[in-house]
Amino acid sequence: MRPGAIVAGVILLGVGTAMLLDNTGMLRVQLNGLIAPLVLITMGSLIVLGGRGSARAGREGTNQEDACARKRRRDRLTGGFWFLGVGVWLLVSKTHLFGLEFGNSWPLLIIIVGLIVMMRGAR
User: Fold this and answer.
1) Which of 75 and 13 is assigned the larger pLDDT?
2) DSSP label at residue 85
């Protein structure tokens, strides 16, 4: 399975659906404002899905090398979740999903940060 291709396909489906709904007048979508959130979500998804490799990767290393590899992988995953979280927050704020916009959606950003910090602490 190729996670990058799946993520790209899902994003293309979403953008195409949004454009179709905008062209038919069923939903007002300005894609110019959605490019940045979609790029952040794509980057975060690729980082998270690509970070599932083995620490050893077919070689025998010392415990210290393995610990460093696990730390790098954990840091990369955390970075991916940051991209995803900020991208989702921007997307929700720009599309006014559930009536949220920048002025009243900042608690959502705090919730996302809390989830990321909890996930990092659980590893």
Assistant:
1) 13
2) H
